[in-house]
Amino acid sequence: MYKSKFKQVKIHPSLDLDIKILQDIDIFDSIIDKNKLNETHIVNAIIDYQFGADTHIILSDQSLIVERSRKTGIIRRFSDESGVLGTFRASDFVIIPTKTFAQKLHRHIPPPRLRVVAASESIPYIVKNKDLLTRFVLDVDPEILCGEEVFIVDENDTFLNFGKSGLAAPEMIAFNRGVAVHVRR
């Protein structure tokens, strides 16, 4: 009935849709596991929103396992056959990637997007999961905001670590004191 009027239906990740509504619209005629498909689309949409368009293609849809909270039913983490790839922060539904997933994202996302370049004297500390201080920041993606998940790289764009930015991009360059990136442990 509705299907003939639309070429494509996009589902916003913040919506908690009842699968019966989607069945009534006849979008998923040939799909067997409708709940898994819906969860996979939600995770893919959030990955694209947070890390850039078409970033979700680094995951294979068939092997993606989505876990929900037993109490609330909200999506908490996603994994594949290699293990957990990311966790959703409960307060704002932002993906906190594991180191494995961060490395996959780093290979897929072109520089300088989401990158903070660290000075060579700070590399031994960053590899040991120590925070990156502002005095050791050489260059930064100008679009980074405070609180975003970022990659810490060397001058050759080699992945060193990842973490949550403590400052916005202009502040990382301007300040000589303080933590630029809180490294995930």
Outline:
The chain has 185 residues and is an alpha+beta fold. It is built from five helices and ten strands.
Structure explained in plain terms:
The chain is α+β, with helices and mostly antiparallel strands and 185 residues long. The protein folds into 2 domains: 3-103, Nuclear Transport Factor 2, Chain: A; 110-183, Roll (Archaeosine Trna-guanine Transglycosylase, Chain: A, domain 4). Helices cover 25% and strands 25% of the residues. The chain contains 5 helices and 10 strands. Strands 6-10-9-8-5-7 form a 6-stranded mixed β-sheet. The chain has a 4-stranded antiparallel β-sheet with strand order 1-2-3-4. Strand 3 (83-88) and strand 4 form a beta hairpin.
Brief descriptors of the model:
Nuclear Transport Factor 2, Chain: A, 4-stranded antiparallel sheet, 185 residues, Archaeosine Trna-guanine Transglycosylase, Chain: A, domain 4, 5 helices, alpha+beta
